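Problem 12. The chain below contains 217 residues. Write out its predicted structure in token notation.
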Amino acid sequence: MRTTLTEENYLKALFHLVDNEGKVTINELSKFLNVKMPSVNNMMKKFADKKWVVYETYKPLLVTENGKREAALVVRKHRLTEMFLVKKMNFGWENVHEIAEQLEHVHSQIFFDKMDEILDHPKFDPHGEPIPDKDGNIIAQDLQKLSACKVGETVIFASVTLSDDGFLSYLNERKLLLNTKIKIVKIEDFDKSMTIEIGNSKEILSRKATEIILVKK
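Solution.
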């Protein structure tokens, strides 16, 4: 049976919220989706019937391997769509999230397989996040927040944890794009804002921005 749009939104929330032990609470889901707790409980009982979660009253949900796979496949459709919009339709990376939110609910597997083929099977989306494969597997990345870096370090901008169009436009204005080399020049004691060097230019990033930017060494 096909998943509904609402079920897919819940699955995607599980993907983003599940911890290293495969657990997530009803309260976390409620806040993330802005849905009342009784509605979340009812949906998770349905998910338990589908063997996507283990549901016990007053305990965190345990997301099963089947549940993780179903969630990853929804995310796969979203991230493939974002990549297609950027690479083949010339959208800016700040303009693709809302369109992908709509197209991710298309049920045709052939549609997304063809998209994957046209893109030559990309491993990452335009925001640097890994695209799950057809089996729901994801490439592990060893990334850290830019805010965790020290003065003098040079790192590579690899991903963002927020694909909000306002934030991505903020990065565009500073010519800070994926795979850009970043040298940390100064960190202010007062507000932890960071002066970085990109090529021959310097930029100042807020603490909030450095928390969202993920880098690799």
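Discussion. Strands lie at 23-24, 53-54, 61-63, 144-145, 154-160, 181-187, 194-198, 201-205, 213-216. Students who got a different answer should revisit the alignment rule from Section 12.3.
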